[in-house]
Automatic annotation (TrEMBL):
GO cellular component: plasma membrane
GO molecular function, one term: protein serine/threonine kinase activity
Membrane topology: Single-pass type I membrane protein
Name of the protein this chain belongs to: Malectin/receptor protein kinase family protein
Species this protein is from: Theobroma cacao
Residues involved in ATP binding: K413
Keyword Heme carried by entry: no
UniProt domain Protein kinase: residue ranges: 64-346, 385-742
Family, similarity comment: In the C-terminal section; belongs to the protein kinase superfamily. Ser/Thr protein kinase family. In the N-terminal section; belongs to the leguminous lectin family.
GO terms under biological process: defense response to oomycetes
Keywords: ATP-binding, Cell membrane, Glycoprotein, Kinase, Lectin, Membrane, Nucleotide-binding, Receptor, Serine/threonine-protein kinase, Signal, Transferase, Transmembrane, Transmembrane helix
Pfam families with a match to the protein in the record: PK_Tyr_Ser-Thr
Length: 774
């Protein structure tokens, strides 16, 4: 077996030689202990808090009695105290004879705690500014520190869900420090001893004496990298970012690294550094990362937790801790992302704890869970499957619009009976949809299991499919467009006698509207006879109508929200149930839109289920299952085509193709095009490599996509469609990046000065080249 200690930076090994019992705190300061000369003035904000006299403090702590001692630190000790009518407090007494750094810690902590307020930061109650004593008084944390409960002999082991909740609280506190205040705060000393627990087990960050402040950064690109600041070395052995140790640079990513170590502590119930162990096991972070790489992480987790952690939850938790402790800071997530992933881990644990019923391919259909329709009811609802109620057709059947009961509109999927797969699809879809519940999955209302008919009834998606709105199926705005054009300008829609740039009235008018000179080309007879308010409304309507394909197509923000919804649905399928569900046929026709334009995944007849995985490594690859080939031309993962293996990464690939469809408004496969352009995914990836992606995006979107948003969107679609499945992101990562893209679009839209009288955002054209590395 290899030796993980070979990965340790040399500076770690130097530090451990000099680290003693009280010197776990790393601090380069003045080694001479001299009487501190305290300044006369404290930060102005401190005077809003109660000022205790030294006499009151001594009375509260029984004159700093040893039995009241809670904790010892480098610059002072913490005592339990009782003030007033029995309120418990924590009294931090800074050493009167200590290094100058003690004064700095006191001043920093006072300044920060006076400015910061958050439910996951410890609260300041008051202070004592006596001539010879500098003391801070905090709310008392009844349940001590996280460290106490991980290693303490006097406490029962914490249940796994409680550990997750504690971690989430601490993550929220750190996220607030990094982004929630006027000045970003780098805690600098995140460890399990500085995460306190109140009487309700709510976690609080404490000990801000080594923290640093700086102005919040502006965005220079889509990567959340904050400007670093230089400082003396601070932190605790076993938690300190190796990049920081090498270069004496401090950033939020140092806190992220330290928090990742805490996550490993929580999982393994082992100290971050233990000099009594073999050299290759002394630093917890390196030992755990090595075990993950070897696929033996389960062997070293806290024995109390074994058999109590849901595999879906463990997978997410280990992955986020591993990412937090990446060697390079710019590859670590920010605390907002960590918080979200920990919340997802908790959600997965809670769902697993409810013991979701497995799908049994031979089980009876769930009559008690959803409504069973009779065939006469279905025929009545669809007017005996009347052609006028036909909505769409799939590989195994047709879909009709129907009306049931008191007028409720439904979609009725009538499966073909001439294939064995039709019956299998019916059973799979009913059983899956009875178990899966998510806001971005289409809801099952009921089914008909008649001898001669197999029918599934869903909620009706009033706005059709994403494909309908990308390609304009069922929309024919041309006659109305022509009427509006002729009414306004009194000229033909097409006039071959005019110059080339004026042949098509629609294109000509759009140009004049964009330049603000539309009034120049209207019918001379109408000039001076149209009220300005009427003219503006009329032009606005006409502009919308003459956009290509009728402009029922959604704006970029709407497209992003549709994609995010679909991504959330897929993410839930892959990780949100006891068994991972592989969708197997992701395409724009199977993403439906309800009356509020919320996207829903549909058509689960080809879906596959497989057990959630155990960790063999940190890459999120689930055990693959063999199956007949399934999918739609243009969307199918090339790896799957070559080897007939099915995994969640196949869904990711197909979703990447959908993203390209959304951007380019082009079908995934079009046999009428030149051979090199027939498959959208290969054509777009080639254009990206050539730096000409902007040339092929939907012309309707040109000038309307913020460059920052476009870059993120193209990047995530490109990664999803990587040739090798193990280089593609998982759907949770896709979801996060799409949310970031939407955030960038909304931010840019609010800042953009609207110079177009018709309210059309116009961004500069952008071009960029993504290096092809797969």
């Amino acid at each position: 077996m290899g030796n993980p200690s070979r990965f340790l930076p040399s500076c770690f090994k130097v530090i451990t030689k000099t680290a003693g019992h009280r010197k776990s705190e790393i601090s380069k300061g003045n080694e001479k202990h001299a009487k501190i000369q305290y300044p006369a003035a404290l930060p102005e904000e401190i005077y809003r808090y109660r000022q205790f006299s030294l006499t009151e403090i001594k009375a509260a702590t029984n004159n700093f009695h040893p039995k009241s001692l809670i904790a010892e630190g480098l610059f002072g000790n913490v005592f339990k105290g009782i003030v007033d009518d029995g309120n418990f407090v924590a009294v931090k007494r800074f050493f009167p004879d200590s290094v100058q750094d003690a004064l700095n810690e006191f001043q920093t902590e006072v300044k920060l705690l006076c400015q910061l307020r958050h439910q996951h930061l410890v609260s300041l109650i008051g202070y004592c500014n006596d001539k010879d004593e500098k003391i801070l008084v905090y709310q008392h944390m009844k349940n001590g520190t996280l460290r106490d409960h991980l290693y303490g002999c006097n406490y029962d082991p914490l249940p796994w869900k409680q550990r997750l909740e504690i971690c989430i609280g601490a993550a929220r506190g750190l996220h607030y420090l990094h982004t929630g205040a006027k000045h970003a705060v780098i805690h600098s000393n995140v460890n399990s001893s500085n995460i306190l627990l109140d009487d309700k087990w709510v976690s609080m960050l404490s000990s801000f004496g080594l923290s640093k402040m700086r102005p919040q950064p502006s965005y220079s690109n889509t990567t959340k990298v904050l400007k670093k600041i230089n400082s003396r070395l601070v932190g605790t052995v076993g938690y300190v970012d190796p990049e920081y140790l090498r270069g004496c640079e401090l950033s939020e990513k140092c806190d992220v690294y330290s928090f990742g170590v805490v996550l490993f502590e929580v999982l393994c119930a082992r100290r971050s550094y233990d000099s009594t162990l073999d050299e290759n096991e002394q630093f917890l972070v390196y030992w755990v990362r090595w075990c993950i790489g070897e696929g033996i992480i389960y062997n070293i987790i806290d024995s109390y937790l074994k058999g109590k952690i849901a595999l879906e939850c463990l997978k997410i938790f280990v992955d986020i801790a591993y990412c937090c402790t990446n060697e390079k800071g710019d590859t670590r997530p920010d605390m907002g992302e960590v918080e979200l992933m920990l919340e997802l881990a908790l959600e997965m644990q809670e769902k697993a704890d409810t013991e979701l019923v497995d799908v049994d391919p031979h089980a009876a259909l769930p009559e008690e869970i959803c409504r069973q329709f009779s065939l006469p009811e279905i025929r009545a609802a669809t007017n005996n499957f009347h052609p006028n109620l036909f909505i769409g057709k799939g590989g195994f059947g047709t879909v009709y619009k129907g009306i049931v009961d008191d007028g409720t509109l439904v979609a009725v999927k009538r499966l073909r009976q001439d294939t064995a797969y039709g019956l299998k699809e019916f059973r799979t879809e009913v059983q899956l949809l009875c178990q899966l519940c998510h806001q971005h999955l289409v809801s099952l209302i009921g089914y008909c299991n008649d001898k001669d008919e197999k029918i599934v009834v869903y909620e009706l998606m009033k706005n059709g499919s994403l494909g309908d709105h990308l390609y304009g199926r069922g929309y024919d705005p041309l006659p109305w467009k022509q009427r509006l054009e002729i009414l306004l300008c009194a000229r033909r829609a097409y006039d071959s006698t005019l110059d080339e740039n004026e042949l098509h009235l629609a294109d000509c008018v759009r140009g004049y509207i964009g330049e603000g000179t539309i009034y120049n080309i209207i019918d001379p007879y109408l000039k001076g006879k149209i009220a300005p308010e009427c003219f503006k409304i009329f032009v606005d309507i006409a502009y919308c109508c003459i956009n290509k394909k009728g402009d029922t197509r959604p704006e970029m923000g709407e497209r992003l929200e549709i994609c995010i919804g679909a991504a959330r649905g897929l993410h839930y399928l892959h990780t949100g149930a006891k068994h991972a569900v592989i969708r197997s046929n992701v395409n724009s026709s199977n993403i439906l839109l309800d009356d509020k334009w919320v996207s829903m995944l549909s058509s689960f007849g080809l879906s596959k289920m497989c057990p959630q995985p155990s960790y063999s490594n940190t890459t999120k690859v689930l055990k693959k299952i063999n199956s007949r080939l399934v999918g739609t031309v243009g969307y199918v993962d090339p790896e799957y085509l070559r080897g007939c293996e099915l995994s969640e990464k196949c869904d990711v690939y197909s979703f990447g193709v959908v993203l390209f469809e959304v951007l380019c408004t082009r079908r995934s496969y079009d046999s009428t095009l030149d051979e090199n352009e027939q498959f959208l995914v290969y054509w777009v990836r080639w254009c990206i490599g050539e730096g000409i992606i902007y040339n092929i995006i939907d012309s309707y979107l040109k000038g309307k996509i913020a460059p920052e948003c476009l870059k993120i969107f193209v990047d995530i679609a490109y990664c999803c469609t990587n040739e090798k499945g193990d280089t593609r992101p998982d759907m949770g990562e896709v979801e996060l990046m799409l949310e970031l893209a939407l955030e960038m679009q909304e931010k840019a839209d609010t800042e953009l000065v609207d110079v177009d009288p018709h309210g059309k955002y116009m961004y500069e054209e952008v071009s960029f080249c993504i290096s092809i590395s797969d």
